[in-house]
Design brief:
heterodimer; A: mainly alpha; 11 helices; disordered C terminus; B: 165 residues; mainly alpha; 2 helices
Chain lengths: 354, 165
Amino acid sequence: MKRLLIALFCILSLPVFANEPTATTAEATDSEAFSPGEMILHHIGDSHEWHWFSTDRDDHYTTYLPIIAYRSGKGLSVFSSRNLAEGKEYDGLKLEHEHLEAEDGSKVYDFSITKNVASLMLSALLLVVVFTTVARGYAKRGTGAPKGIQSFFEPIIVFVRDEVAKKSIGPKYKRYMPYLLTVFFFIWFNNLLGLLPGGANLTGNIAVTLTLALLTLLITLFSSNKNYWHHIFATPGVPKALLPIMIPVELIGILVKPFSLMVRLFANITAGHIVILSFVSLIFIFRNVGVAPVTLAFGLFINMLELLVAILQAYIFTLLTAMYIGGAVEEHHDADYQMGGGEGADNAHANHAH
Amino acid sequence: MPPLVTPEFGLIFWQLVIFGIVLLLLRKFAWKPILSALNEREDSIENALRMASQAKLEMQALQAGNEKLLAEARLERDRILKEATDVSNKLIEQAKNKATEEGGRMINQAREAIQNEKNAALAEVKNTAAQLSIDIAERILRRELVDTASQKELVNSYLKEVKLN
């Protein structure tokens, strides 16, 4: 949507370019040559200010966000990022490609409320408001039929409970429901917010997906039982001689699972944004209004696809998290094949029968 | 490392803090009440369904009971009717028997009475005959003294009289 708006804006501004004298156009091209890679990276990356849009006359519509920096010698310093705009220095700090650095080269811990952090807070507020409203619906109507927002979210909550948690974790699913539901709606809401015009690319940020994957890893490790470790250090059916190879492989496997979670979400969301931005860039590259319909059509198509990807990635992250937890809490049988039953469980039962 | 795949320390910190707060808040104020309400509703629906099927079974049992009761009542009625018929038949039979007996008895009595009357009549006839004989004999005895021929005539006339009587 953001890109669509930009595209629209570009189309509107194109005639202006066309009417300008050739010399001015050439100058403009020289002074600010359009680099799609830079533009795209800027849009999918984090920023210390919330930039909404700019006009031809170099008017920037920007919300400046607070900078919070900690340096071991100077302690905490808090100020507006307006002070650092366009390469300015303030309090011995400057922004180098959106990276906060000290003038004297000392280490800076950047706790700034960046665009992503602001978006994160917004989504947190949204999540709390939406789901306490849903909960109020249950308090009000008791066991009656759901209504309004409650009836919209109920099937999704029931789906996460029945299709994701119960099937993947088994009888101990109840303990993990709060985490699974929160992760699912957190990712979904933020994916959608990222598609809004001016929205931040939060779920396409490696720090965010890293944190979520780390939480999944910690929950998996803390809920793991004897069986889980038994299968890692003494994988059943593997000859003793192979164990020196198998144990490192299994240990790497513990880390690969959350790593894949991290990369999958990050790459899917970022890739979607990059594709849309690339279509928008086509207008600037060709400098031709004829490209706009193509850009619009493809941009719209990708945006629709992104709406699907938004919920799909939330589902996949939640499902895999549930499966990893399921693998860690599973008892004895069918643990060695596949967490979460299904074919693996059937195989295991068949093997027991033999 | 390119900035795109370099996790920013600050964002990890905020993500941990804010996600943690959201998780705790939602767990307490959203997920727990929502999930328990869902469970409650599912239980109540299950209960309602179970009760409905139970009620259906009870209805069927009731109907079967009614039919059984009806069949029993019918049997009872038949039995009572049969008994009544039997009793009435018996009564009629008894009455008949009694009537026959009474009739027989009465006939016997009549017969006896007739016999008695006959005997009495015979006795009276005998008496009368004896009286007559005595009378005749008396008269003969009186008349003998007069004439034998006329005696005979007299006897005959008496005898004629007797026959006429």
